Amino acid sequence: MSGFIGKERHAVDEKGRLMIPVRFRRKLGVEKVSAASGNTDCLYIMKAPDRSLELYEPCIWDEMRKTISSLSDFNPEERLLKTLMYESLETVELDRQGRIALSREFLDHAGITRDVVIIGADTKMIIWDPSRLSAVLQENTERFSVLAGRYF
User: Fold this and answer.
1) What is the pLDDT confidence band of residue 40, given thresholds at 50, 70 and 90?
2) Closest residue by Cα to residue 111 from 93, 91, 133
3) Are strands 41-47 and 89-94 parallel, antiparallel or unpaired?
4) Do 142 and 149 form a contact (C-beta atoms < 8 A)?
5) Is 142 exposed, middle or buried (0-12, 13-18, 19+ CB in 10 A)?
6) Where residue 125 falls among pLDDT bands split at 50, 70, 90?
7) Which domains does the chain have, with CATH numbers?
8) Could you tell me which residues come within 8 angstroms of residue 127 by beta carbon, excluding any fewer than 6 positions away?
């Protein structure tokens, strides 16, 4: 499913709400949600170690959840990974206008004050502060060909 591809610039409003781009909402099936039924779409958002935020659909997160759940609570490394993953995770609801509310903790983690770049990365959306993304890209420009050669 999914197939999020592309990059969009948006802004977080004064209440911490972020509009999900229409082309990504279409992949979520947002237009199919009945306003009369009161249904809301729940998405999973995670603080990534690189200081970005990752946004997942429930069907994608469910596969990740199964993998995490299979980790042993009696193995210290696996238990730590579970703790680190779930400490970094929240659910957010997509409202009727196609927005999600980002908590102060998540905004601070990503260094987001207003503008964001949303990158479609197939099975997830990655949300960046534009200056942080620019710095990561500049710092790693030369690594692209090495990494591509290693994995493709």
Assistant:
1) low
2) 133
3) antiparallel
4) no
5) exposed
6) very high
7) 4-151 (3.40.1550.20)
8) 18, 52, 53, 54, 55, 110, 112, 116, 117, 118, 119
Residue environment code for 8-38, b if the CB has 16+ CB neighbours within 10 A, otherwise e: bebebeeeebbbbbeebbebbebeeeeeeee
The one-letter amino acid code at 34 reads S
The answer to pTM > 0.85 is: yes
User: Which residue type is seen at 87?
Assistant: E
Distance CA 76, CA 152 (A): 34
pLDDT average, residue stretch 116-123: 96
Tell me, what amino acid is at 99? Answer: R
Q: Could you tell me how many residues make up the chain?
A: 152
